Amino acid sequence: MAILKIASMGHPVLKQRAAEVADPAAPEVRQLASDMLATMKDAGGTGLAAPQVHVPLRVLMFYVARDRAGEPAEADPGDSESGAGTRETSPFAVPLTVLINPVVELLGDEKDLGPEACLSVPGLVGQVPRYRHVRYRGLTLDGQELVREASGFHARVVQHEYDHLDGILYPQRMVDLSTLAFMSEVERAQRA
Ligand code: NI
Fold first, then answer.
1. Which of 145, 161, 185, 187 is the catalytic position?
2. Nearest-CA neighbor of 79 among 32, 138, 26, 29?
């Protein structure tokens, strides 16, 4: 596993539509995912898309930690790979999920405003409207199709990472740029 360099806002690779992965079973894809995971862990992110490591392919990954999940409804990713018996002890509301050539379907019109940050927009945080409910599908590294419905923070993470594949960063989704702030200042204000 290698820790890759993360592209920052302004780099062309973050502005383009990433290409479909032609052969999801290729060893190079597995290697990419492995390196992305190392990079995401090193940077302390909860999600990462391949364009963020200068690879313009439709690959993304994320997880949702239990303390980020918020409402209990989000703790159910709605698939069979996380059995009910393991939920009590798992620190993850949604386990690490790698998706190749994902598709996101919006369910309903409801949106929520919530804070987002991005490893490609370091140091900043902003309030971003996202659809509350989505359904997503994509291929896993094993070549299986994964389909899940997501709500709340889980849905937010998916929409954020998916946007990277279409060359969109979260500030482009913001409706009130006055909420864009340096995390250090937000933390300072919270301490005061
Ligand atoms: Ni991001």
1. 161
2. 138
